[in-house]
Amino acid sequence: MKKKLLLILTLITTIIAQAQDNKGVIVLELFTSQGCSSCPPADALLDEIKEKNKDKEVYVLSYHVDYWNRLGWKDPFSSERFTLYQNEYANEFYSRSIYTPQLVVNGSEHLVGSNKSKVYNTIRKYETTTTTNSIQLANVKKEKGEIVLSYNVEGEKPNRLTLALVINERITKIIRGENRNRTLKNTNIVANRVVVTPNENGEASIAIPSWVKTTDKLSVIAYTQDDDLKTMGATATIL
Questions:
Q1: What is the pLDDT of residues 194-212, one digit of tens each?
Q2: Which tens digit of pLDDT belongs to each residue from 67-114?
Q3: Is 170 helix (H, G, I), strand (E, B) or coil?
Q4: pTM for the full predicted model
Q5: Rounded CA gap, 147 and 205, in Å?
Q6: How many domains does the chain have?
Q7: Which domain holds residue 40?
Q8: 79 in a domain, yes or no?
Q9: Which residues contact 55 (CB under 8 A, 6 or more apart)?
Q10: Is residue 227, in this structure, part of any structural domain at all?
Q11: What angle do CA 27, 123, 126 make, to 5 degrees?
């Protein structure tokens, strides 16, 4: 009887340990633009989610696209590369077009980023999911205009590892375009993004764009994706 009880306790301990090792993560990627009048509510909601989930495995990123720049205001954080990344998702979702504000959740589904009730319902949906790999970042430091780091990925092998250099927040006064005369707050702005095909261990560097200020609070958010761009794991480190 004692041996049977001991076996049961061992199994329970193993299951709990595995659950802790494979804790769920949520990666929220908002495709947005300062030139889009529909985007500020989504930007504000992303900031709210970030503040409410400081102690959870919830990672938020603002990818500023460039196709709104033609309407009078050039978003200083925008990049054609981020628009191309959004198009990758469009292909995966069989979408004929891209839009802002688009929120992609764990690479698995997308929705309008300002739809508060739907966004929170979707977050709750993914709170119970588990990761299929884990990521560790080490030796993260600034060196001559770039961030250098080493990484380790354990578990199921991903198709890609994304390393996003993120600015905590910026306040911008908009003087032209659809949001003229408004002051906007953007959160977790992706300043640069490096995608690597990871081995179990490796090293990488991320260039720091010239528009990043010395006063900006920076972090690196790392997340893995499978062949269909679905999130497999994530982590972050503050610089």
A1: 999 988 899 999 999 999 9
A2: 999 999 999 999 999 999 999 999 999 999 999 999 999 999 999 999
A3: strand
A4: 0.90
A5: 5
A6: 1
A7: 25-238
A8: yes
A9: none
A10: yes
A11: 75
Q: Are 152 and 11 in contact (CB under 8 A)?
A: no
137 vs 3, more confident: 137
Residue with tokens 């589904």: 109
Please say whether the beta carbons of 232 and 225 come within 8 A: yes
Q: Position of tokens 């069989």?
A: 94
Residue % of the chain over a pLDDT of 70: 90
Task: Name the nearest CA neighbour of 73 among 178, 185, 210, 190.
Answer: 178
* Nearby residues of 199 by Cβ (< 8 Å), 6 or more positions away: 153
Residue 212 belongs to domain with CATH number: 2.60.40.10
Quick count: other Cβ atoms within 10 Å of Cβ 15? Answer: 10
Evaluate the CA torsion angle 49, 52, 56, 62 in order and state its sign: positive
Residue 70 Cα distances to 55, 66, 74, angstroms: 39, 8, 7
User: SS3 for 111?
Assistant: strand
Position 19, amino acid:
A
